[in-house]
Amino acid sequence: MADNSPQNALLGLDRAELAALVESEGEGAYRAHQLLEAVYRERVESIEQISTLPQQLRLKLVEKRFSIGLPRIEKRFVSQDGTVRYLIEFADGQSVETVWMPEGDGGEEGDGTQTGDFTGPSPAAGPNRKWDRATICISSQVGCAVDCQFCLTALLGVKRNLSAGEIVGQVCALLKDQGVSPPEDRINLVFMGMGEPFLNYENFVKAVRLLVEEVGVAESRMTVSTAGIVPRIHDLGQEAIRPKLAISLNAPNDTLRTQLMPLNRKWNLHSLMTAAREFPLRNRERITFEYVLLSGVNDATCNAEEVVELLRGMRAKVNLIALNPGPGISFSTPERERVEAFQQVLIKAGIAAFVRRPRGRDIYAACGQLKRTVEIATAPVP
Ligand code: SAH
After folding, report:
1. Residue range 130-144: average pLDDT?
2. Is the peptide bond before 183 cis (omega within 30 degrees of 0)?
3. How far apart are CA 325 and CA 364, in angstroms?
4. Which of 132, 135, 312, 355 is deepest in the core (most CB within 10 A)?
């Protein structure tokens, strides 16, 4: 797939690549460190702003058409619950959505905030701050090719992959906009926005490395969610630096799963669950299984019993997500009682099960709602 990111963006380059760049300009290796600091920690917007570099070198880089490559925030939509949906634009005019979710909901409710252990207020949290940790939901592709029948992003199709710099750039743009910095501020990252990260695997993995090594977010605070690209689940298990793994299960048998997620024809539940069971977990780590509940389709207690069988003996937890509705989606959201009944079956069988709180449903920021929706009632904040 075409990668239309700007050729000369510094965002996305790692230490070795920046070292090669400054060397080719006849500069000392310590300049690479200054570039890393400026791009990933200070998050400057232009090369002119890199005050640690001599003016001459800045001019030379600009002449050679290098740029930082920080994406532009096109719009912000603010939810009543504090969630902010950002429309982020890249150099070629394509855009994705990135979601800011301040504050957790008790730590284990499954909206991604549980990726870090809660240990008290962040030292950086000032007296006026209403949150002491936040989760950023990142997109990995413009649109998505997977075609899950309940997901709004699927309606876009896939336009292109994001480069590593564009993936990291979303995080940098939001951190800058919110005026926060990890690791002082407790930031969790979830690769659960638009797109299928495992269909853009190389760029995703490089982005994770940059986020850990240069931006300063611990890998234990990151979770990647896949619709079930089985070979890449194996690959992820071999990575030295990797987020935690979440798998979008969504149905407990092949008939139902193929109907809801056509990719199940290629990688069925047997191959998916085998990969999940073989996944090398770290100390105290668990695999998360996400399960979107669709009224009258996959939300019966007998379906929950099937899930229990699938997960038997695994170090796993389940995040239940009541469908977030949207135009063009033909399913409906189950009643609260049905969600609770489903959850109870899992809990009684000894499986940790949480109901994910819908964040920012009013602004189309919740799971499965990311479709670059600009025509909504909530006024964008300029
Ligand atoms: N492609 C990846 C990550 C993006 S989807 C994946 O499939 O895992 C993130 C989560 O949102 C997935 O678990 C998905 O099943 C869920 N989701 C998709 N559409 C939804 C909807 N309309 N309501 C609730 N959750 C949805």
Report:
1. 90
2. yes
3. 9
4. 135
Asked whether the beta carbons of 228 and 264 are under 8 A apart, the reply is yes
In angstroms, the CA 117 to CA 186 distance is: 10
Q: Is 247 in the pocket of ligand 1 (CB under 6 A)?
A: no
**d(C-alpha 354, C-alpha 370), whole Å:** 22
The single-letter code of the amino acid at 218 is A
Distances (CA, A) of 18 to 30, 33, 62: 10, 8, 15
Which residue among 151, 189, 198 is best mutated to probe the pocket of ligand 1, counting the most ligand atoms within 8 A of its Cβ?
Answer: 151
Residue pLDDT, tens place only, 171-211:
999 999 999 999 999 999 999 999 999 999 999 999 999 99
Q: Which residues are catalytic?
A: 97, 367
- CA pseudo-torsion sign 156, 159, 164, 169: negative
Q: Three-class SS string for 291-345?
A: EEECCCCCCCHHHHHHHHHHHCCCCEEEEEEECCCCCCCCCCCCCHHHHHHHHHH
Cα–Cα distance for residue pair 254/258, rounded to 1 Å: 6
Pairwise CA distance, residues 172 & 189, whole Å: 12
DSSP string, 40-105: III--SSGGG-TTS-HHHHHHHHHTT-B--PPEEEEEEE-TTS-EEEEEE-TTS-EEEEEEEES-S
Residue 134 Cβ contacting ligand 1 at under 6 Å: no
Closest by CA position to 257, among listed 244, 246, 245, 270:
270
- Distance between CA 249 and CA 231 in Å, rounded? 16
| 8-state DSSP, 162 | P
Phi, psi dihedral angles at 9 (to 5 degrees)? -75, 135
How confident is the model at residue 121, as a pLDDT?
44
CA-based nearest residue to 210, from 10, 2, 6: 10
